[in-house]
Amino acid sequence: MALVSAASHVFNVDAVLFDLDGTLVNTLGDFSEALNGALAELELHPIAPAVLERFVGKGSGYLVNCAVKHALELMGKGLSAIEIESICDRVQPAYQRHYGRVNGRYSSCYDGALEGVRALAAVGLPMACVTNKPTAYAVDLLRQLELLPTFPHVFGGDAFERKKPDPLPLVRSCEALGTSPARTLMVGDSANDAQAARAAGCPVLLVTYGYNHGQPAREVDADAWVDSLATLTVTR
Fold first, then answer.
1. pLDDT tens track for 190-206
2. Hey, which residues are catalytic here?
3. For residues 70 and 73, what is the distance between their CA atoms, to the nearest angstrom?
4. pTM here?
């Protein structure tokens, strides 16, 4: 059991789950480089990072689909749903290939992320990283940024049958940690994380930066918000 204080809210929990992209690590540079590399192969219009940011957080399928549609709009091409799906089917493997090449090269930890995670680890609080990013990419990214030692469990979007905002990844992660959802804090950056937490029965803390589909994180149903994970205090 630990008391995790965030702003004016105190969570009495046995474990903590962390989202990755937009919560611990700013990966927008990786997404931009990989996706625009894939779009270029099909001679599609590049996507500005500020626009791309709104598409991040629901898995690569959603990201590619939104990016392709936006690229076609910029090019003034009105295609049928079947034609768009066909293009997405070609962009997706190219995107995965480019992402595997650049993973971590254009990313960095958010200010305060390392301090916040290490503070929780220092008191022996069980933790897991739960992300929609493929597990192999997540593990490699965490390793590069020296975060991996704090996460004995890393569950990517391919670890379970469904991804966030479905509650299944959180429920299964709690099972792996041997804790109940009601006493397992979910820390994320978006409505995806909050919706998954609410449905799973986990308390939820959101950071105010990150990727929330263009909406302020404070407008999302959560228990508390922080501007930096370095502001977390933990007692056991």
1. 999 999 999 999 999 99
2. 19
3. 5
4. 0.92
